């Protein structure tokens, strides 16, 4: 009995981890158009109509993916709203090339890789002065273009791209009941 129960519980856990199978899609039927031209696209199956349906489904898919990201942040790191707010501030500051705003989001001392060497940056003023060396154009493009639905989240934090930047909570008390979300890493071509 105990083994059977273990197998059933294991199967339920595995099925909970697997996404549901996609709904079946009715096959396209090639029917002639009103002019009798069988080579024309069937009504409602024009490339524009297919694209419009795909575009309409994208926000729902993104919303579901973002919800999964938020839940994962809550489970592993804490308050997802705080992470989302810093994610958006960081992206906007990088896209605007606002060195001062980016520097305000960084945890110090900060170790940067500049010209292949590790350099310790002690404060926001020093970070802003070396901004262009730390946030290279390629790294800025990854950060600014990161879709929140595509973030990777683990116990180390929230990752942009392939590791070009990371956000994580920095505890402000011994029990870590209070924390600030900060940029903890920016690295070129991770």
Question: Count the strands?
Answer: 6
Order of helices and strands: HHHHEEHHHEEEE
Question: How many distinct folded domains?
Answer: 1
Order of adjacent strands in the largest pleated sheet: 3-4-5-6
Described by the principal axes of the CA atoms, the overall outline is globular
Rounded mean pLDDT is 77
Quaternary status: single chain
Query: Which class of secondary structure composition applies to the elements?
Result: alpha+beta
- The value of Rg in angstroms is 24 Å
> Main β-sheet: number of strands, strand sense, barrel status?
4 strands, antiparallel
Helical proportion, percent range: 40-55%
- Uncertain residue segments: 1-45, 49-54
Give the CA-CA distance, first to last residue.
50 Å
Percentage of residues in strands: 15-25%
Number of H- or I-type helical stretches = 7
Protein name: SnoaL-like protein
Organism: Luteimonas cucumeris
Signal peptide: 1-23
Region (Disordered): 27-51
Q: How would you describe this protein?
A:
This protein has 190 residues and is of the alpha+beta class. It has one domain (48-186). 46% of the residues lie in helices and 17% in strands. The chain has seven helices and six strands; from the N terminus they run H-H-H-H-E-E-H-H-H-E-E-E-E. It has helices at residues 2-17, 47-76, 80-95, 99-104, 124-129, 131-134, 137-145, and strands spanning 110-114, 117-121, 152-154, 157-160, 165-171, 179-186. The chain has a four-stranded antiparallel beta sheet. A hairpin with a 7-residue loop joins strand 5 (165-171) and strand 6 (179-186). Helix 2 packs across helix 3 (80-95) and helix 3 (80-95) packs across helix 7.
